[in-house]
Design brief:
With 546 residues, the protein is mainly α. The chain contains 27 helices and two strands.
Length: 546
């Protein structure tokens, strides 16, 4: 099994959109189509893709032809396998939107008001995100000549075409994600430099937790508004929810009663923690309902009125709770927020319309500005066990970003906790060495029985030995138990193997020329020099300034 390499695609982003089973099936279809007439052109795809599930069943041949012609006007161009995969992805998303079923690996946040059949976008969301960008990137030395962006125009979609703004926005959301010396920031970029920026942006977006399914570098170049806005919304969401964890805001421990509840709280996604915080504060008011979402449960603005009265009673207006019209109440809520110094992110209409993205952004900013939690953190012994070793935290962050950048089915927040059932490690191994995992004996989450987790992790260790990893005294149960030292040792070897495979691919594309440390150092030093820095690296063992 170790000798099986599966079907490889040169574009890593495209490779990550499919399982090996899907790639094999699509490869068979592609080969069959091309065999019918000796070659396959863009014009042929509409008729010959009728045999494909979803694409063939839910779209007529004319609909497929019209959709393809809009995207690729050169109908006589010959189609290779990778082009075929890109067309399939776009048709699949189009067909899924048509039927209302989920697109392949789609994200609910990305599918919100910004992605519909006609690819319309929410002008209110666009205006809110533009205001956010104008605020947080106003002092950037490169972007200040483009800012502020006019929210009523489509300038945003022109500015993102070189990839710089999105890279900078990612660093605002999660500082240090991208070394800005790697961003090409010349005034006029050639196609290769622009593509480097887009690839850097997409990989980094995946690393911090964005879902980038069906988004490619060409979408940025063409300024596809619904896709660009969908990605921006995810990046901003990650920034606004960054403090919703016990490490950044230990006062959140007030929301629970004992250490067992703390463990549960740590496992919740930030949106759920935000809802729990909101309901915790609402219990201090006469409001008796439970808020379970940022859409229908807040559209009458009543929950907001009570929340702000609890957090900032000095700015309250008695009329807010007595007015009968939800729209008027929403306007009074936003006036209250203004007096508190909170950014709006939405209008009164967005509240009564139940816009989930903008309501979430509004509540998240209220939390950042005034969370109403005690400054005296409870002394719960469990908190003292949280990882605080700087070296371990730094390594964990690197491996977490790397695993998330591979496009696995689940985003991980902590490698020591989220890898313990073995499933994400198996997915990562399959990305790094396609076909090496025996999925027939793998246990898919949710996994309740501990021995099922051990079975997954035993296969992880077994595959590691096949790949010649040094795994002395490492067993599957060590991963299940969350042994930090052994998990980091395994991940280091797995990441190293992945990089070596990448270097082998580079050698293949460079006509057999061996890629050495000298080549990598020369590339890195050129990048640093182009950014205007005098730093220089002579080897991977030491560095100095010249």
């Amino acid at each position: 099994m170790a000798g099986y390499v599966g079907i490889l695609v040169s574009d890593p982003w495209l490779q990550n959109q499919f399982t090996q089973v899907e790639l094999r099936s699509l490869k068979t279809h592609f080969t069959s189509m091309r065999r019918e007439s000796g070659k396959l052109t863009v014009e042929d795809l509409a008729s010959r893709m009728s045999r494909l599930k979803v694409v063939g069943e839910n779209l007529s041949e004319q609909e497929r032809a019209d959709f393809i012609a809009d995207l690729y006007p050169n109908l006589k161009d010959e189609v290779d396998f990778e082009f075929f995969l890109k067309v399939y992805l776009k048709l699949h998303a189009h067909a899924s939107a048509r039927t209302g079923s989920p697109a392949k690996n789609s994200s609910a946040f990305l599918k919100a008001a910004t992605t519909t059949l006609l690819h319309t976008i929410s002008e209110s969301e666009k205006a809110s995100y533009v205001a956010h960008i104008n605020n947080y990137l106003a002092q950037d030395g490169f972007l200040n000549k483009y800012l502020p962006i006019n929210p009523s125009s489509n300038d945003l979609f022109e500015i993102v075409k070189d990839g710089v703004l999105l890279c900078k926005l990612i660093n605002v959301a999660v500082p240090g994600t991208i070394d800005e010396r790697a961003i090409n920031t010349k005034r006029l970029l050639n196609p290769w430099e622009r593509n480097e920026n887009h690839t850097l942006c997409l990989n980094s977006a995946k690393a911090i937790g964005c879902t980038v399914v069906n988004i490619g570098t060409q979408d940025f170049i063409e300024g596809r508004r619904h896709l660009v806005l969908g990605l921006i919304s995810q990046i901003i969401k990650i920034q606004l929810l960054a403090d919703l964890n016990l490490k950044k805001t230990p006062q959140l421990v007030e929301l629970v009663d004992d250490s067992k509840d703390v463990e549960e709280l740590m496992s919740l996604p930030p949106e759920k923690i935000l809802l729990r915080w909101m309901n915790f504060q609402l219990k201090k008011s006469p409001y008796k309902k439970i808020v379970s979402n940022f859409s229908t449960d807040v559209k009458d603005a009543e929950a907001y009125a009570h929340l702000l009265n609890v957090l900032a009673p000095e700015h309250s207006n008695p009329s807010t709770l007595t007015v009968k019209d939800p729209f008027q109440r929403a306007k009074l809520v936003l006036e209250h927020a203004d007096r508190m110094g909170c950014k709006r992110y939405l209008t009164a209409k967005d509240i009564v319309d139940g816009s989930p993205n903008l309501n979430l952004a509004f509540v998240a900013h209220i939390f950042q500005h005034r969370n109403g939690l005690s400054t005296q953190t409870k002394q719960i012994s469990f908190l003292e066990t949280l990882p605080d070793d700087a070296q371990v935290s730094r390594e964990e962050r690197v491996f977490r970003f790397w695993i998330n950048s591979l496009g696995n089915s689940t985003y991980i927040d902590n490698v020591f906790e989220d890898l313990r059932n073995g499933w994400i490690l198996l997915e990562t191994l399959d990305k790094v060495s396609p076909g090496i995992v025996n999925w027939k004996i793998a246990n898919r989450p949710p996994i309740k029985l501990p021995f099922k987790k051990v079975e997954n992790c035993n296969q992880v260790v077994k595959i590691g030995k096949q790949l010649k990893f040094s795994l002395v005294n490492i067993a599957g149960n060590d991963i299940v138990q969350g042994n930090k030292k052994l998990i980091l040792a395994y991940l280091w070897q797995l990441m190293r193997y992945n990089i070596l495979q990448l270097l082998k691919n580079l050698r293949f594309h460079s006509h057999g020329k061996e890629i050495t440390d000298v080549d990598i150092l020369r590339w890195a030093n050129t990048k640093v020099s182009d950014s205007g820095s005098q730093s220089r690296m002579d080897s991977f063992k030491m560095s100095r300034k010249r």
